[in-house]
Amino acid sequence: MASSATTSAARTQESAAGLPTCKKETLLESPSSIITLPNEMLLEIFANFLPIYPDCAPQTGMGSPVHLMLVCRRWNDIVVNTPSFWRGLAISDAWHDERILEAKTATELYLSRSRDHLISVEITIPEADTNLSHVLDCVAAHRGRWEYVFVSMYDDAQAGNFLGAAPNLLHLALFCVRLENDFGRNGTVANVPNLRSAVLFGLGTRDAQHGLPWSQLTSLTMADWSLDVIAPIFLEAVNLVDCRIATGDLEMLQVGAPKHLHALETLILEDREQLDGVPGTIAGFLDAFTAPSLLELQIPDCFLAREGLVALERLFKRSECHLQRLVVTGHLVCNLREAYECRFSKVTSLEFLPEHQGLPPMEIPGTLKLSDRARSRMSAAAYRAAITSR
Questions:
Q1: Contact, 334 vs 352, CB < 8 A?
Q2: Number of domains the chain is built from
Q3: Arithmetic mean of pLDDT, 33-61
Q4: What's the whole-number mean pLDDT along residues 176-197?
């Protein structure tokens, strides 16, 4: 903001250069135009300065509401008394041990300024950090207001802090670098009637009855799980509209009658570990469901080795879907292009892309926000309304 004021002053001086002396003095002595703006216009400017909710602002520094407060007393009063500016809170490991009480106090103050608004929280828990639990207690006290939660953990020791009642929770993203226990053993996320979207990176459960209420989700991303963990959860989530799966471990699955996923429109499959030549097949997974509403599918060519390609044909025939876009990614697609075109001639758009030219890869743990594809189509508010209505 300081640079903007400097630029404004410079332009004022340039404009005054060609004026009579009396007018020049009056113009140069007038306050900068941004200081004289009405509160309504300042609020709009501030709203564009801060991250778009549900993305979270840092607690201090550029992009934070605190940064605006430091400009002048008037701005301080406006920002402090605008609860919507404090809805997104980012908590990281930026504090030293001796400053943990200061961090707790700052977090409590930040949360209090959002008053009764629903909030978005982004938390990064570093390795073996016990001090941060004091700060997490502050956040947990407001779990009734949680709407979006993004958590990056080194291990799953703190996972229990994010289980339990959160009646307004709409989106949950949990990232775990090192999984010590089955995610389901930490308990079940209960009383989350509004939960519609989840991202789980490195967290899996062998029991699809635990973890999350899968059947109420409309959007689900699962990464770094083996296929035998993914499949039961995927089949339990019968109301999915969008699903993204990144796995590095294909399994020879034995399934029963195909599960009917009536709402599934988009399915993105990614290879996390370059599976070319590795035993295993995607065939059992593709045989496990029917998706009559499927419009878009992305799949690595290495997943279609062995029985995979035939299983994909069976899926399309069984589902009787009107697929609009099939994207095959990988390094061998050029060699098999004619075979794919022959088998899937009824697909509206058949594309062959190197792996890095498909959809953006899974984000680094702790940075994943809402779907880039969804956010590029609509505003945050419209996206929230869309997934709530499903």
A1: yes
A2: 3
A3: 87
A4: 70
CA distance 110 to 132: 16
pLDDT greater at residue 72 or residue 279 = 72
User: Quick count: other Cβ atoms within 10 Å of Cβ 186?
Assistant: 20
Rounded distance, CA 54 to CA 369, Å? 8
Q: Is residue 352 part of a domain?
A: yes
Query: Do 42 and 160 share a domain, yes or no?
Result: yes
Indicate whether 304 and 281 sit together in one domain. Answer: yes
d(CA 105, CA 121): 16
CA distances from 222 to 40, 129, 138, 244, 384 (A): 43, 26, 29, 6, 21
Residues pairing with 296 in the sheet: 266, 325
What is the rounded (10 degree) CA torsion for 211, 214, 219, 221? Answer: 40
> How many angstroms separate the CA atoms of 341 and 333, rounded?
11
Q: Which two tokens stand for residue 365?
A: 């743990």
- CA–CA gap between residue 97 and residue 276 (Å, rounded): 46
pLDDT surpasses 80 at 163: no
Q: Are residues 134 and 81 in the same domain?
A: yes
Mind listing the pLDDT tens digit for each residue in 230-262?
Answer: 888 899 999 999 999 988 777 777 777 899 999
Considering 185, 211, 237, which residue would you say is the last residue of a domain? 211
pTM, rounded to two decimals: 0.78
Q: Give the range of the structural domain holding residue 30, as residue numbers without chain letter.
A: 1-36
Whether residue 47 sits in one domain with residue 161:
yes
Are residues 32 and 130 part of one domain?
no
Tokens 């920002």 map to which residue?
79
Gyration radius (Cα) of the chain, Å:
26
Residues 76 and 136 in one domain: yes
- Taking the CA atoms of residue 30, residue 79, residue 52 and residue 160 in that order, the dihedral angle to the nearest 10 degrees is 160
Q: Specify whether the CB–CB gap between 170 and 147 falls below 8 A.
A: yes
Of the candidates 299, 244, 285, 282, the one whose C-alpha atom is nearest the C-alpha of residue 266 is: 244
pLDDT band at 281 (very low <50, low <70, confident <90, very high): confident
Q: Judge if 222 and 334 occupy the same domain.
A: yes
